[in-house]
Write a structure and sequence with these properties.
mainly beta; Jelly Rolls; three-stranded antiparallel β-sheet
């Protein structure tokens, strides 16, 4: 399982559209996996990246899209891989 932890998040975008700059997170390989969410703005807005995102597979696709209009501070995200155990069996 992949887990993302938000440490900093400040990209262009206020409101639900996230039209300028945004970060998309997919659960799985490439854009074939389900979209977990599209995030923009900063921690003060509901469209901001949540503090923690947990995937359900051993892959996660993160796509950042930016235009040339406004520059904000950007983002700092920590991604970690967790092994899932069930009884005496380890699943990757």
């Amino acid at each position: 399982m992949i887990q993302l932890e938000r440490h900093e998040f400040d990209v262009e975008g206020i409101g639900s559209r996230c039209a300028g700059d945004y970060l998309e997170v997919y659960d799985g390989e490439y854009k074939a996996g389900p979209l977990i969410g599209r995030y923009c703005g900063n921690e003060a807005y509901e469209t901001a990246l949540p503090p923690t995102i947990k995937g359900t597979t051993d892959m996660m696709n993160i796509v950042f899209v930016s235009d040339e209009t406004y520059n904000e501070d950007g983002f700092y995200i920590l991604a970690t891989a967790h092994h899932v155990y069930s009884g005496n069996t380890m699943y990757d």
